[in-house]
Amino acid sequence: MKTIILSLSTIFLVAAAATFAADEPKADADQKALAGSWSVTSAEMRGEKNAEVVGSIMTFEADRVTLKHKGEEDMKEAKYKLDSSAKPKRIDIMPKEKEETLQGIYELDGDTLKICMADKGSEPRPEKFESAAEKKIVLLVLKREKK
Asked: Rounded to an integer, what distance in angstroms lies between the CA atom of residue 47 and that of residue 69?
């Protein structure tokens, strides 16, 4: 009888540990791959090239991203969240200074990152990597900064 109780206790503890481990948030592989600094190599806003943004640096770490525009000292901070299971993959950016969520999509290919997102929180998430004049969409192409 003592052996049965001990066996049942062991099974219960193992099952409980497995349940708690499954509930822990797992670090997304793409989130790990994004870690570091990225330089904007091209930018389109509402269908037009935007040279002002080229050369800006986005730095991803954990659930935070900072943007430093070229030639400026100040950095803009935001939280971000990825959904790499969606097709296309999704990114949501929540700027620190605004109470809105900018919805976007992303594509990560080695040292190249594409981000396409609505430029206002009230705009819907884009479905394709394109920025048309009639849509309030920003399309960025970034390259990983070499250390």
From this structure: 20
Q: Hey, what are 142's tokens?
A: 């970034």
Rounded Cα distance between 119 and 121, Å, is 7
Query: What is the chain's pLDDT, residue by residue, as a tens digit (147 residues)?
Result: 433 333 333 333 333 333 333 333 445 899 999 999 999 999 999 999 999 999 999 999 999 999 998 888 888 999 999 999 999 999 999 999 888 999 999 999 999 999 999 988 999 999 999 998 888 999 999 999 987
Structural domains of the chain, ranges and CATH numbers in brackets: 27-144 (2.40.128.20)
Whether omega before 88 lies within 30 degrees of 0, making that bond cis, reads: yes
Which backbone phi and psi does 64 adopt, to 5 degrees?
A: -120, 150
CA distance 74 to 97: 13
Say what the pTM is: 0.79
